[in-house]
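Hey team,

Sharing the Oil body-associated protein 2B run so nobody has to redo it. Sequence (256 residues) first:
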Amino acid sequence: MDGEGVRPPSREGLQRRSGEEGVGLRGGEIHGLAQERGEPVPPGKPMSVEQQLLDKGAAMLQSLKPIKQFSQHACTFALYGHDLTRQIETHHFVTRINEDFLQCAVYDTDESHGRLIGVEYIITDRIFETLTPDEQKLWHSHAYEIKSGLWVNPRVPEMVIKPELENLAKTYGKFWCTWQTDRALMFSPQPGVVRPDLVQRRDKKYNVDSSSLKVSRVEIPEPEWINPQVDYWKSHGKGFSIVVEPTEMKKIAPFP
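Structure output:
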């Protein structure tokens, strides 16, 4: 027994529970599944059964409260800030912090082998207008993404999610892609930019029709005014990328 009177589960108990609940795929199976689907596999050895049991034991004994706050899954698309021809399907797992601020862990798939590829922060226009012009340049709008049917919440009926979509259409997001850190900042889809084949593949997977969703969302109100700093590339023809360079280390450095 530990100090709180909780007996850690035995390996045998974990194996039995894993068998009863059908928890997870074996490491090699996850690796193989990704390869079969033509999806990139991160470097490293497949997960062993022993490691999965250790992870399961830790998960059973810890609260993991921030993770359990994810309340919705949204699938959409993102474009690299320096090259709009590079486009990816993204899966946002969303936590609402308050009425004006949401945060998302972004994965490349909603399957069990999904890779965490970035984070997105979402704020209302009320918060956005308090940001400095230089900061506003890094944010994108969501109105087109929502109204065009590109943003979907898989398996959630449209009539159920519609009130949330109406709120999201007036928000702004900043998406940092951490998987390829030399590029980092991502833009949201805009008219005539997203590759049709990406949309068709996504729609087929979740049995949705973006064109029909676009029609059903035509009445969703857009922001009365879009700040000219947002979606900076549309009006200025310039994107953003990160350059990592060596710098002197100082005891006290100015901020920013």
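The mean pLDDT is 82.

Ping me if you want the raw files.
A.
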